[in-house]
Amino acid sequence: MAENGLLDVTGRVALVTGASSGLGRRAASVLAASGARVVGVARRAEALVEWQAEVGDNGAVIAHDLADRDGLADLARAAALPFGAPDIVVHAAGINTRQAADDVTPEGWDVTLSLNLSAPFFLSQHLVPAMKEKGWGRIVNFASLQSFRAFPGGIAYGASKGGVAQMTRAMAEAWSRDGIVVNALAPGFIRTELTAAVFDDPGRAARNAAQTCIGRNGEVDDLDGPLMFFCSEASKYVTGQIMMVDGGFTAK
Ligand SMILES: NC(=O)c1ccc[n+]([C@@H]2O[C@H](COP(=O)([O-])OP(=O)(O)OC[C@H]3O[C@@H](n4cnc5c(N)ncnc54)[C@H](O)[C@@H]3O)[C@@H](O)[C@H]2O)c1
Ligand SMILES: O=C(O)[C@H](O)[C@@H](O)[C@H](O)[C@H](O)CO
């Protein structure tokens, strides 16, 4: 925590999707270690329970398929049971089906858009009324390099992440007057399960690292600072913004 308390999240309740692995799991752990009570959501119950054992009493878990839009109202209700209504939501669940444009299937397209784009919107819509009542809320979306750049096999993923970038601005316009700031983290190439295919190709991993200003690809803890900024009082006059956390990939 910063000495002036700006990054403090003690006593806040956070809902983190994608908490079973990668960036979502890291975000859930960092928030819990910083004093928030965290409800972790993802599909894999076993991995969630393992995460909960790590964080102890500050964590609760719900196994849920976020691509099923009809279940999101129930999920929002269930998420309020362990610690009260969430003040913070971090939408980290996401997939990349990596289908080439000529081969994209309707199923691949739909699940990508449902999980990456629709779930953050509709789940937020169910959580916002309680945030409005408190006059304070933080919504953190996950955009990507692919919100702005095209990569092979990225048409559905890129469409979803381009949508996340614009949705973040539109959510900010809709809800910020009620004390809810809405921003997005846009990671570069960070080593997780999602990017295993990228990191398993040494040539591609090296080219991506060389494209950054910092000279390396990312690790999950590279997002800790930007995450805490967006989840805390520090970001009270920052809304509708997409923060590149890409080692300077897009600056170069
Ligand atoms: N890793 C990167 O380089 C990178 C770069 C840019 C953006 N992102 C974004 O960051 C977010 C986290 O990605 P990651 O790299 O940690 O990936 P990951 O594969 O490690 O984690 C994804 C999480 O989403 C969950 N999930 C997948 N389908 C789900 C469903 N139907 N319902 C509920 N949960 C589901 C998984 O269980 C997992 O917890 C994603 O939105 C991703 O698009 C990642
Ligand atoms: O894994 C891949 O193949 C995709 O390129 C993405 O998932 C990227 O890692 C990320 O979106 C870039 O910011």
UniProtKB/TrEMBL annotation:
One annotated GO biological process: fatty acid elongation
A molecular-function term among this protein's GO annotations: gluconate 5-dehydrogenase activity
Name recorded for this polypeptide: Gluconate 5-dehydrogenase
Enzyme class: oxidoreductase
InterPro entries named in the record: NAD(P)-bd_dom_sf, Sc_DH/Rdtase_CS, SDR_fam
EC number: 1.1.1.69
Signal peptide interval: none
Coiled coil residues, start to end: none
Record key words, sorted: Oxidoreductase
Domain of life, source organism: Bacteria
Family that this chain belongs to: Belongs to the short-chain dehydrogenases/reductases (SDR) family.
Record carries keyword Oxidoreductase: yes
One Pfam family this sequence matches: adh_short_C2
Originating organism: Roseovarius gaetbuli
